[in-house]
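>> received
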Amino acid sequence: MSKLKLIIEIKAESDMELIADYIAKDNKNVASKMLKQFYKSFEKLSEYPNIGIKRPNFTYKDVKFYVIKKHYLIIYTIVEDTIHILRVLTAYQDICALL
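>> returned
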């Protein structure tokens, strides 16, 4: 499979901003590294879109979940030749309510 196009939805951008702002309160360097990790993971997903898993216990929606550093979830869907990053959430949030 060739690399898919990548779209980062507005909610996902907002999620990442909130996460980075929270981390930056303690350490701006770590916040910057976390953002880089998110974007690196998006690229990985565009190359290997099927590495995420479905979680029917969280949602009936046709989305996949990809875990980063045990506490962060990238929630995405694939539409034709494009991967859509829908949300970037922490494991501490009410994921079901936010989807």
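>> The two ends are 28 Å apart (CA to CA).
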